[in-house]
Every structure is written in structure tokens, then in C-alpha cells.
Amino acid sequence: RFTMLLLEPGEIFFEDYSVQMKMVDTSTADKQNWIDGRLKLCSKSLVFVSKDINQPLIKIQLKETIDIDQCESNSDTAKSNNILLVQCKQYVEMLEKNILAPYKFIHQTATFHFYFNYAKVNERLPQILQLLRAATLPTAEQNVMIMAIVLSRQSRVSFDTSWLENLYEQVVLETQANKVLPLVINPGRILLTTSRIYFQPYNNLDQYPVLKIQLKDIINIIKRRFLLRQTGLEIKWLKQPENKVEHLFISLKSQNDRDELYTSLLNQAAVSLERVPQDQMTLRWQNGSLSNYDYLLYINSLADRTFHDLTQYPVMPWVIQDYTSPKLDLNDPSIYRDLSKPIGALEKSRLERLKERYLEMSEPKFLYGSHYSAPGFVLFYLVRKFPQYMLCLQNGRFDHPDRMFNSVADVWKNVLVNMSDFKELIPEFYDTNNGGDFLVNSYGIDFGYRHDGTKIGDVQLPPWANGPTHFVQVLRNALENDFVSQNLHHWIDLIFGYKQRGIEAEKANNVFFHLCYEGAVDLDTIRDINERHGLEIQIMEFGQIPKQVFTLPHPKRTVSILDKLCTETILMSIKSETEDREDTIQKIFELHELIIFQSHKESVSSITVPDKEEIDEVISVGQDGMLKLYSIKNKKLTRIIDVLQGHEDAVSCLALSITRQIIISGSWDCTAKIWKCYTSGTKIKPAEYFIVQLDHDSKVTCINISRDETLLVSGTEDGEIFLWNMDTYNLQFTVKAHSCKINSMVFDQEGRSIISCAEDKVLNIIDVHTSTQTYRTSIEHEPLTLVWFDTFLLVGDNNGNINVWNHQGAVFISQIHCHDGPINALSVSKQNNVVLTGGKDRKIIVWDYKKM
């Protein structure tokens, strides 16, 4: 039942003892019974936890204590000489009948006796008295004295090496550290070895006696601010075997200690971080690879915002401004908040009053006397999900019922008109994984009654919401809406960017109290500990401006064809529309079957056709290992010209360069080979026609040539992309684009990027000049082949369909069924308006394209 959230924020738990307790009532001669339990020794209090869960926990704050001493029990000789006497002016009862409720403060003098079952009182009393002396000091001096006691205790303890997973692990570094959770600090020791990092808390309250993290499982390591100083470090890793992402947030004694641990971690061979440069992450967001939600979380992380620190909790924008209508149309721009303005500037009349006050102020001036993110605001939203946090932060009390988070509409109205309320939202409003659980009073806590007699329960949602899950889903859909996507960069400029401070902040009406800004005060230069403590409390309670991430205007998001291509809701809506609509779509892009031929013994792997005025040859390869050349005249199959066996394994793909008069074949033998084009009607001799071999590390699964025929790209079974120069056949770069077999690749229409799709149902875009990934997204159905036809992108799928998308406006056109089974090959000749498809059904079909 005991947790550190029952203590003051940041209070430290040292140890506990098996005891028997009785409360001495001097007003009566009645004999009191001893109660079995445990006594928790903490830095600012003593807490007794009874074994009977119906009995309340009793907390005695040291600052309210009159006397602590060893006493003798005349009435019980068995317990004499080992009793601790504690006399206090008041005490606190918590969790009576194990129900989470506001604490009861008993304002009366009381005397408690604690009999220690095993420990010796005379050995523990000096430390308790030392903490009691600290409690008589001003808060800042008390904290300094407590930290001295903590460091003294820590320096006498080393990491218990019996907890090492492998006794042959080589120790790299050992240091003191605090594990940080919201409102909780738990001291311990960090041990870094060549294969693991360990955290061993000094007490027995942590979930693990020793936390063990394998270095090979670490995904990211981030330097963080903690309590306004650069002493924090956050480690993100994959917990096995669940493959679940976990976080460890620790603070160290100094920035030098933090930096030493950070460097030592990075220097270990087992650490391999998934790091993507900031500009690439921004590029991914611009191109639609990252959702708005994920990108905002990423920027929050860059700005030192973390879920483990309520003083620097991630901040999200209000995006919808309509919380009263019975229905909501996400395509209506009028329902959205103006993201180019801070919350305080949305309502004109309030802004004018704030500006009048601003002009009359002496320096340093500020528009807003309250912040958009602070611990109190975070818990204002989360009180139903984490009531224990609110009780911890507010000294055992919930807020007044009328000031609680009761209605979404009321909160929105308040942040528009109230002169001291400018709060934004938190990620939970857009987190569809948790289904809006923070909006529900699932613990059934009695929060009291509002002034109108209404009992506080679940949050009142807008009329357009069918429940918490639906409410959060609608907000998430709104956040990802095109209107928000096209304007979100303005809000990023205000919160994380160039409009955060300075002259641009003044122009944007975005000026907050000066202590909110990072670096406004160097706390380490303030010698007076009471003054420094006062500033720390003021800054932490008021809220902190995120670290500035961008100093130039943030780029606007662009709409990508692939972003819409992968949106299941768009595909579903098309299928569910009326037949009239489907008829209209079919007239935009139609294919008419011309010829069907079937000459491969196994599945067709690849087809290529020259894009010239008159089609004469079609080349195909199949999983039977055969490369076959066909002569087509008058759109009829006439004869097989020849068969080429030029690889040691199956030929998987083909490409044809008319300008260079070459054929490129890719094979499961881990090579791509360049061949001279044959002379029609002559016998093919592989040795004479072979030009060069391009070696790969695994099976070649697809190849493609850029429109200007200067670049060749090849993809492999293990997910690698190879880019080759067609003039020299030199390798330009390789990049690991997928985790499995690449199905198909095409150059974009300008030849600046490579679009790839794979068995992992991931679409990637790789920049040709920098080899960087500019787009990545997962889709529901696996695409097997991609090809451009003028402005149309044709996508062959597992169900024998061609999905047609118009690049102009990223519009889905139609879905055309072509084969019984997967379409493995697509080729086009625009000049002849011909599309060729090859499938697992061993058929090659020639289609005539009709543009209506």
C-alpha cells in the first residue's frame, strides 16, 4: 500500500523496520493494543503501515514533531529499552480501508510508541534525530542538509556485484544516480558493464531489486534537463521477450557525471542506436512519413519534454474549437483553431486587455502571467487516471469541485476568455491506444459536488462524441487532417521555434514571464540557497518554456501521393460509395484486354517492353529460370525468338534501355547482369552479349532504370537498395531500406527519389543524391509492383488487382482486376497506350489503355 507518492514531491524514502505501534492516549487509563506493521523512515516524515489493510496509514511529518526519543515501557517489560517515542502536534491518516481519498489531517497532539522487533532503537535514533534537526530549518536549508545525509549514506554503499548476470562482465563505470518518475525521486547506484547497465536502488520500494538493461536492446539515449539543470539522462530500450518499449529516466550529481555516463554508454560496442538526424525527421514529416502526432512527440523530446517529469511534460495544441455542435465535419475549416496564434491571442478582446496591461508594466514585461504547461495543468487533465499524483502535489487534497476538469467545452471556453488561463493540451487527448481512459472516473473516487449539486464523475464530452474512445479518435483524426497539417508549422514556430522568444515572440503576442525561459537565470551563480530555492519553486510551479529547437521558420508540410495511397479510410470510402460514382471513376482510367499468352511453366517474375512508336518485342522472365523474347506484330503473339539462360539461378527481374541498347537481368544468384541487345532473328550467344556483372550480398529481386537512363537501382531479398551509375557501372551507394524482401522499385517522375515497397508492407522514399530516407510508412495490403503511366501510379497487389492513383492531387482513380492471384510484373508503353501484366497464374496479358 505504501508508495513514494504518499510523501511530499521529491521526498526520499530511506528504509523500513518491522515494528509494533500503539497510540498513547493520556486522557484515559485504558490500555491500548499494539498494532503490527512497518515503520517507513523518510527524509521528511515517518510513516506507519499497518498489516491490516482496513487501518489507515499514519504519516507523522517531522516538521510537526515535538519530540522523538527512546523510552522505556513500564507496562511491558518484554518491550522495554527498544521503544521509539514520537510526540507530534498533528498527524495524517491515509488510505483508510485501502480507499484512495483526500487525507485526514488530525490537528491534535498525539504520542506514538514504536517497538522495533529486530532493529535496535539506540542505533537508529541518531539518524532520525538528524532528520528532525533538518526539519527545523527553512525549506532550502532543510533540502541541503537532507542531500548531505543522502550523499553520505550513498558514498558508503557500493553496487552489489552478486546481481551481475555474468560474472565475467567487465565493469566500465559505477556512479550514484536517482531514478526519476513523476513527483518521485529514488536514489541508487548505476553500474555500467560492457554488456549491460544496472540500476540498484538503495531502498526496497522499486519494482526491481536491480534493474538490468542489455546494451544491445537500447534504442536511444537522450540528455535531459532535470530541475532546471543539465543532469538528466533518459534511456529508451526494448524489453524482451515482450518487445515492449521501456524508459529509464535518471538524474546524476552534476553535468560532468551525466556526460561521462552518456559518453561511456555510446563507447560500448554493444550499443547501436536508431538515430535519425533532425533534418531527416522533419523531411519525413513534410513528406507524410511521420504523422503529426508522432512528429509533435519527437519535437517535444528534442525540447526536453518527457512523460517522466511533470514540470516538463509534452505539450500538444488545441486543434478543434467546436465543442457544442451535435455533429462535426472535419472537412469544415471553421471548426479548427487558428494555429498561427498562441492560446492567449485567440480572443481579440482579451488580447487587447492583456496588451494594455503589458504597456503599463516595467521591465521585464510579459503578456501572460500564466503558462500553457505546468505540473498543475497536467494533473488537472489526468486527475481521474492518476489521482495519487494530485494528492501528492496538493498535500493530500483534490482541487475544489468547481475548478476541476469537468467539461471539455467549459475548459475551452475558459482558455479563450479567462485572463489567467492559457493552457494547451497533453498527448493523452490524441492517444488512441489508451482510448481516453483519463476522461473516466474508473476508480469511483469521490471528488465532491459542484455548486449546482452535480456530483463529479466522468468528464462531460461534446455532443458530437459518442464516448471517450470516439472523442479521442475524432481529435486524432482532426490532428492528422489536411487543414491542420498545412498549418501546424505555425504552432511549432510559437512553441518550439523562432517565435518562441525575442522580437518575433513580441510580434506574435507570445511573451511569457521571463523566468519561464531556459537560461533566464543561472541558478548555480546564486549563492543564497533560500533565494535559489524560491526561484526554483517559482519556475517549476509556473511552468517552463520548452528548449528552443528551431531558430528559422519551420517548413510547411507537403501532401504526398503515398500518404493518401496508404490511407485505408480513403480506400474504404471509395469502395463504399455509390455505383454512379464508381462508373465515373472507371471512365477516367480503363484497360481493355488485347492478348493473353501463357508460356512460362511457373510464375511470371518480370516483363519489360520498349517504349517506342511501334512495339515489336516483349521480354519476360519467370521463376522457371527462362528469359523469353516475343515478337508482337499487330498486337498478336507470333513466335518465341529465343531463350537465354545466363544466370546460375532463377531470373527474377528485367529492365530494358532503348537508348543504350542493353538489357539488365537480376537473379537469385545474387547478381545483376548487363547484356547487349540482340539482333532480331539471330542466335543469342551469352558470352558475346555479356557486358558486366553487378554483385550483391543476397538475391536480386527487382531492378529499375531512371527516365534519363543514367541510373540503375536494384533491390535485394534482405531489404537493401543498390544505386549504380549507368555510364561506369560504379556503385553510388547502398542503403538498408527494408527488413525483408523488396518487391518493387521505381524512380519518381523527376528522377530525384526512389520509391520502394516490400514484404514488410512498408513504402519508402530514398533521396537519390543523399541516400537518405525522406518518407516511410506502413500500409495494410502488401504492394507487389509499381510502375508509372504518365501521371498515373499503377500498383499491383496480392489479389490480382491494379490500383490506379493520379499523381496530380494524389487522387485514387480505380481498382482493376487483372489476374487470378498476385500480380508480380507490370510494364507499360505510353506511346502505344499499352499495359502488360504478369502474374502468379503464369499468364502475361497485354492491355489497351483508353483515356476518357
Helices and strands, with pairings:
Elements: E1 13-24, E2 35-42, E3 45-50, E4 57-61, E5 65-71, E6 83-88, E7 91-94, E8 104-106, E9 110-116, H1 121-135, H2 139-155, E10 171-181, E11 184-193, E12 196-201, E13 211-214, E14 218-226, E15 229-239, E16 244-251, H3 255-266, H4 278-286, H5 292-302, H6 348-360, H7 375-382, H8 387-393, H9 408-417, H10 468-479, H11 482-485, H12 488-495, H13 502-507, H14 529-542, H15 561-565, H16 568-576, H17 579-588, E17 590-597, E18 604-608, E19 617-622, E20 627-633, E21 636-644, E22 651-657, E23 662-667, E24 671-676, H18 686-689, E25 690-695, E26 700-705, E27 711-716, E28 720-725, E29 731-736, E30 742-747, E31 753-758, E32 762-767, E33 773-778, E34 783-789, E35 792-797, E36 801-806, E37 811-817, E38 823-829, E39 834-839, E40 844-850
Antiparallel strand pairs: 1-2, 1-9, 2-3, 3-4, 4-7, 5-6, 6-9, 7-8, 10-11, 10-16, 11-12, 12-13, 14-15, 15-16, 17-40, 18-19, 19-20, 20-21, 22-23, 23-24, 24-25, 26-27, 27-28, 28-29, 30-31, 31-32, 32-33, 34-35, 35-36, 36-37, 38-39, 39-40
Helix pairs in contact: 2-14, 7-8
Which band does the percent of strand residues land in? 25-35%
In what order do the strands lie side by side in the largest sheet?
5-6-9-1-2-3-4-7-8
Write the CATH architecture name of the largest domain. Orthogonal Bundle
How many independent structural domains? 4
CATH class of the largest domain: Mainly Alpha
Rg to the nearest angstrom? Answer: 35 Å
Shape: elongated
Q: What is the number of beta strands?
A: 40
Overall average residue pLDDT:
84
Q: How much helix, percentage-wise, in residues?
A: 10-25%
Structural class, judged by helices and strands? alpha+beta
- Main sheet properties: 9 strands, antiparallel
* Helix segment tally: 18
Cα separation of the termini:
73 Å
CATH topology of the largest domain: Neurobeachin, Chain: A, domain 1
Low-confidence stretches at least 5 residues in length (pLDDT < 50)?
566-587
CATH-assigned homologous superfamily of the largest domain: BEACH domain
Protein name: Protein FAN
Keywords: Repeat, WD repeat
InterPro entries: BEACH_dom, BEACH_dom_sf, BEACH_Domain, FAN-like_PH, GRAM, PH-BEACH_dom, PH-like_dom_sf, WD40/YVTN_repeat-like_dom_sf
Organism: Habropoda laboriosa
